[in-house]
Design brief:
The chain has ten helices and 18 strands. It has 310 residues and is of the alpha+beta class. Helix content is 30%, strand content 25%. It folds into three domains: 79 residues, Uridine Diphospho-n-acetylenolpyruvylglucosamine Reductase, domain 2 (2-Layer Sandwich), CATH 3.30.43; 130 residues, Uridine Diphospho-n-acetylenolpyruvylglucosamine Reductase, domain 3 (2-Layer Sandwich); 88 residues, Uridine Diphospho-n-acetylenolpyruvylglucosamine Reductase, domain 1, CATH 3.90.78. The longest helix has 19 residues. The chain is globular and about 55 Å long. Strands 6-7-13-11-12 form a five-stranded antiparallel beta sheet. A four-stranded mixed beta sheet has the order 1-2-5-3. Strands 15-16-17 form a three-stranded antiparallel beta sheet.
């Protein structure tokens, strides 16, 4: 069935929640990109599920937007309904044999991890330096400092387009490096919430880890608008090291530049366009492949209509 955009249906369903032609640049960490043709906010996991279920039933295309990290929105924008996921409930179960943290998918990962640390719960310290939502981290198997979501996830509550509500464990999520079964088959399901395992820990040790990771981030990751890590690390190597080894730090296209601090971060100087980002990505990919034979794979996702920019 061909997707359709029926404004009358959208107005009838969403009423004053529906907005038109909403700029997305300020809702992404790279600060670039066009507008959403239609835009709504979901304030809870239940509302998110209801919204998505309706759009699926009417075959109306949509995109769920979290914190806007790890994505590049086209300058042409998104000809679909963008659902801003603002479902941010966080709850702790500290008294069971296996302490855990429950978070709706729009909760900010850093916030959830820091709240755990403040309660003397350990296991999520690695996540206190990662921008993005819990849902995005579960979807993309986010990780840092030698750990990843794969080690913390107990269950992910999802809404599947054909199978309905499901709870998936780590094995069922099909995790691999910066990927999952859901990410490999986009559009088939959305993440509503997740339960993450934590442990009771030593408060001073937790604080020391937080300080260590924060200092490391400050020393290695550049400030300024960016998408985060642009490319996945090839097996046994680092994308940033490869790009740096070819003298590509400082390489610029328009308003975006390969960071002088970390070559896997592309920084917007305030004047960049999504096309600048796309062209710099292609330039760096091409040089790396030509010089080393390695094809760098994107860690970010390119969203929206890119045909007009070919």
């Amino acid at each position: 069935m061909t997707p359709r955009m029926d404004e009358k249906l959208l107005i009838e369903r969403f009423d004053n929640r529906l907005r038109k032609d909403v700029p997305l640049a300020n809702l992404t960490t790279a600060k670039v990109g066009g507008s959403a043709r239609y835009f709504i906010s979901a304030e809870s996991a239940a509302q998110l599920a209801a919204d998505v279920g309706y759009l699926w039933s009417e075959n109306i295309p949509f995109l769920v937007l979290g914190s806007g990290s790890n994505i590049l929105v086209s300058d042409a924008g998104i000809e679909a309904v963008v659902i801003h996921n603002k479902a941010k409930l966080i709850h702790f179960d500290e008294n069971s044999a296996t302490p855990s943290l429950y978070a709706e998918s729009g909760a900010i990962l850093i916030t959830a991890a820091r709240q755990a640390a403040m309660r003397g719960l350990t296991g999520l310290e690695w996540a206190t330096t990662i921008p993005g939502t819990v849902g995005g981290a579960v979807y993309g198997n986010a990780g840092a400092h030698g750990a990843s979501m794969q080690q913390n996830l107990l269950l992910a509550d999802i809404l599947h387009r054909t199978k309905g509500y499901l709870s998936l464990n780590t094995e069922q999520m099909g995790y691999s490096y910066r990927s999952s079964a859901l990410k490999r088959e986009p559009g088939g399901a959305i993440i509503l919430s997740a339960r993450l395992v934590v442990e009771k820990g030593d408060t001073e040790r937790i604080k020391a880890l937080l300080n260590e990771f924060a200092a490391r981030r400050k020393q290695t990751q550049p400030p300024g608008p960016s998408m985060g890590s642009t490319f996945k690390n090839p097996a046994g190597d680092s994308a940033g090291r490869i790009i740096d080894s070819l003298g590509l730090k400082g390489t610029r296209v328009g308003g975006v530049q390969v960071s002088q601090m970390h070559a896997n971060f592309f920084i917007n100087d305030g004047s960049a366009t999504a096309r600048d980002y796309r062209d710099l990505i292609l330039l760096v990919q091409g040089i790396v492949e030509e010089k080393t034979g390695t094809r760098l794979e994107l860690e970010i996702e390119m969203i929206g209509d890119w045909k007009e920019q070919e």
